[in-house]
Amino acid sequence: MDLTTVSGLTEAVQAGNRRALARVISHIENNTELAMPLLAALYPRSGRAHIIGVTGAPGTGKSTLVNALAGIYRQNDLTVGVIAIDPTSPFSGGALLGDRVRMRDLAGDPGVFIRSMATRGSLGGLAQATADVIMVLDAAGFDRIIIETVGVGQSEVEIASAAYTTVVVEAPGLGDEVQAIKAGVLEIADIFAVNKADRDGADRTVMALKMMLNLGAPEKFQVMHHGRMLPVNLPEAENLPQGWTPPVIKTVAISGEGADTLFEAIENHRLYLEQSGGRILRDRLRAATELRMILRDHLLKDLLARTDPAALEALVAAVARRELDPYTAVRQLVHENDG
Ligand SMILES: Nc1nc2c(ncn2[C@@H]2O[C@H](COP(=O)(O)OP(=O)(O)OP(=O)(O)O)[C@@H](O)[C@H]2O)c(=O)[nH]1
Ligand SMILES: [Mg+2]
Q1: Distance from the CA of 60 to the center of ligand 1, in angstroms?
Q2: Which of 125, 273, 326, 329 makes an SS bond possible with 121, Cβ 3.0 to 4.6 Å?
């Protein structure tokens, strides 16, 4: 197969060719001329994978947990793609994870594909590149795709919005749970994992989370899941059953304890989404998020390409000198480029 052409690469990716997969991802990350035709060719082949987001504060054990989860998926004959978005992730450094033996098993296993993506470039850029790589892994036939992100900032929420099931990882003694709720964790969590349950305080963290969930009318969050930042009108949202309360699961990622329960919870959530129509709603939300992301990027690039750099510079200077407010400056920019 010719791995230099769009059709050759597309075919090879679908046939499970690893080298082709790595090449396609490089094209996307480097935004080469082949990137867009490749994405266009692969998109219709995607849409089958279940996408799982794993997020939480630094050092809570996300990578170790993802590793344990991937092992369980393999035991269940399901293939797994892992995308780690974090420069400090052990996945990127090539360092071995907690369970060395299992990791070595995963490393040589064609049913697992691990890729890390650096948090470089603009926020929208990374979120978009991540969405593209997820789509490629999906088209390549991976049954489950796990994305690891750190924290719950806006960019992470954007990245996490690509997931159908979001697992928020907490660890005992790592910061104040109330703080985590403020950061918007309740809105995005479908499942909580309280990792490092071999340490003191895990039960307290579990109780605190359960209390928050009772206070927080979770069914409301479930319906608008990821949609809070996305004011789209979706009639489906009104007909959705509201039956999911995020389970709180204790895990010890280094030994794999509790990972099977987490696996079951994820699969239960997947079934819940399918049976309740939630998957269709999330597909609409994902499409809306992605369209907006690409549109924003496209319009900005397009406008900047048509703008005289000197004129832009003059506007920037005028705003800096307070002779012009930024809103008027933008209106001038947009109108000057009309027609
Ligand atoms: N005691 C204990 N340590 C754990 C557990 N899970 C992970 N660790 C350790 O915690 C440290 C961080 O684990 P990682 O898996 O790298 O955590 P992470 O959340 O991916 O970290 P970042 O990606 O840097 O945010 C490592 O030293 C792990 O061995 C656990 O269940 N119990
Ligand atoms: Mg990590």
Answers
A1: 5
A2: 125
